[in-house]
Amino acid sequence: MKTEILHNFTSRSRAATADEAQRGKFRSAMDFLIAKRAAQFPDPTEWAELRESGQQIRQRALAYLPKLLVQFEQKAQQNGMTVHWAETPLEANQIIHGILQRQQVRTLIKGKSMVSEEIELNQYLQAHSIQALESDMGEFIVQMADEKPSHIIMPAIHKSKQEIAALFAAEIDDTPYTEDVDELIQIGRQALRQQFFNADAGLSGVNFAIAETGTLCLVENEGNGRLSTSCPRVHIAITGIEKMLENLADLPTLLTLLTRSATGQPITTYVNLISGPRRADEQDGPEEVHIVLLDNGRSQAYADVQLRQTLQCIRCGACMNHCPVYTRIGGHAYGTTYPGPIGSIISPHLLGLAETRDLPSASTLCGACGDVCPVKIPIPELLLRLRVENVTRAGTKDHPAVMRGQGAKYRLSEKLAWQAWSLLNTTPALYLASRRSAAGLRHLIPSVKAWTQARVMPKIAPQSLHELIKAHQEQKS
Amino acid sequence: MHSNSSISLFGTCVVDLFFPQAGMSALKILEREGIQVNYPQAQSCCGQPAYTSGYSDEARRVALAQIAAFPGEDPIVVLSGSCAGMMKHHYPTLFQGMPEEEIVRQFSKRIIEFTAYLLEVLNIELHDLGPAESVALHTSCTARREMGTLQNGRELLRRLDKIDLKTHDHESECCGFGGTFSVRHPDISAAMVQDKTAALRQCGASKVISADCGCLLNITGALQKQQAHPENKTAFAGLHIAELIWQRTGGKSQ
């Protein structure tokens, strides 16, 4: 099922671009976020210095990642947390399910966690008769509509207030239809409030894990993250292994880069630093805190120095907000947990290139994503690298195996076409002779219709620049 | 004052095939400024289509052919920001750690984009002889982000007295060309160019100027397709900046 969905990027992007209403929604939402972010970085020098620091902090953390993970485990254990390691989504689901079973948990309340989406935790738990309830307002809406998030920061950005009004009126008891946004938020909050106290366990994501102190940092605006991690008697946090920071002192720089880039806020309403379960003299907090560290392809990206930069990501979403492709097709069309430019460079490691073969080319390489990345991930460069891996089989001369699904788009016919193109453009006589038929271009175009659906076919000029200049120079001399 | 200067011109394959008048305009502007222009007949394409499609070996072969076609040390003026970016910034990356790296670096240092040459080297004066006209400007993403030539088009148009530059909605956004992207993801590319052309049509200009013929191929292709529809009665043209400058400063229009 999943494979089929992922392979169908072309048909999903066709449907998405044909949906004028949705395109309008994404356009205005992204414009809003772009403006909010821009207002937070009015000084280009400060921005340049800050992101340089952010990049250095993330690169340093990744350089020491194996050591930091061990250090984090020790510190977290000293703080009373239990640390679990998961290589695959299935392992992560089994670990979480195991904890919930031991604690006889029937309902789980969730703060926002994209890694839990990545492992499809809700579906796994549902199949094992445990109810997982999303408490982030956007996730709550998406779950109620039986959909997936379309954006990593704003999961329900694809929904209009009218759609949410209709959804709430239909799904929440005694709820009148209202399009008043404040009222809708109050309705959602009321529906959720008691759930924090009813739930036996809470699950959250992690924005940063600090190795020095064994601390989990969690940012949010709604307070649901704090309630999910402090009300229930068990708290489970799940994160990718790349979220490590070396020191607590690294945190302020990344926090300000994250919140300003993501939502245009100087700081979020809540910044949670979680250092373990409730202590003997404390009144609040869970009795148990578990942390699940997930690999799921990240160590594959880590092994290659260039691709490792993918793991610098702090999940602010600015690259998708600024991406003209994401703006046209929205998050669902990508068919992956992480959409947009960052999704196109991380998903091939999580799912393999065979499953995500259309994503590296789903960019004009305009560079907007790289420009706004707060930790300076060279996203266009990494897209280019994945395009090479996509068409090059592993194990050929000079080309080692670097990733799952490598060579997924390799076709002998395409390779030969490019070789012919290269011959044409390295042999002047051939280039001059063949230009009239534009033979060099024609067999590289999958179908003429691909170009002409929106444009006329360009006419080849009667005389080329080569010929015109030659005539011009002869006339002069 | 520039009579001793000589440059080599890289026309780009798109100009060679589809917009040769842009190349001729550039040539004549440069010659009028007293520059001796060398146009190696052995030049073809910068190699970008293969490079962005993941075919690095093929791109390298084509790159080396261009390097061989441009011996000497004179500046190489390139008629497109995108191809200039390929030759200036991506060639050294492509040959990193290879025996040819140093030769490639020396070649890449000679690359200068056409509008940058007009402004930074020639500081060209333009005497606008044309009628008052409103135009829009499309800056290619490469010019904007990779070549730092974002303001050049604006500055050159400012030096044409009777040109009224109109800004269009989402001016800084990509037109949706992206080379082979336009045919690999035709629906997304079409959506982008439709938004771009709609914004252009609404800004009050009657033509769009660009220093990048890749973008122009896409934008003018869409504009012409739309003109076939009865509701788009007004023609909206697209022109390389060299052609506009040549036309308005004494040269004849094609």
UniProtKB/TrEMBL annotation, chain A:
Q: Which Pfam families match?
A: Fer4_8, LUD_dom, LutB_C
Q: Which SUPFAM superfamilies match?
A: 4Fe-4S ferredoxins, NagB/RpiA/CoA transferase-like
Q: Which InterPro entries match?
A: 4Fe4S_Fe-S-bd, 4Fe4S_Fe_S_CS, FTHF_cligase-like_sf, Helical_ferredxn, LUD_dom, LutB/LldF, LutB_C, NagB/RpiA_transferase-like
Which biological process terms from the Gene Ontology are attached to this UniProt entry? lactate metabolic process
Q: Which GO molecular function annotations are given, in alphabetical order?
A: 4 iron, 4 sulfur cluster binding; metal ion binding
Q: Is-annotated flag, keyword Repeat?
A: yes
Domain (4Fe-4S ferredoxin-type) ranges: 303-332
Record keywords: 4Fe-4S, Electron transport, Iron, Iron-sulfur, Metal-binding, Repeat, Transport
NCBIfam families (alphabetical): LutB/LldF family L-lactate oxidation iron-sulfur protein
The entry's protein name is: Iron-sulfur cluster-binding protein
Source species, please?
Answer: Iodobacter fluviatilis
Biological classification of the source: Bacteria, Pseudomonadati, Pseudomonadota, Betaproteobacteria, Neisseriales
From TrEMBL, chain B:
Question: What's a single GO CC term here?
Answer: cytosol
Query: Residue limits of the Cysteine-rich domain?
Result: 9-88, 135-219
**PANTHER family on file:** LACTATE UTILIZATION PROTEIN A (PTHR30296:SF0), UNCHARACTERIZED PROTEIN YKGE (PTHR30296)
Specify one Pfam family: CCG
GO terms of molecular function: oxidoreductase activity
Per the record, the coiled-coil ranges are none
Q: What is the protein name for this chain?
A: Oxidoreductase
Task: Look up and give the organism this protein is from.
Answer: Iodobacter fluviatilis
Domain of life of the organism encoding this protein: Bacteria
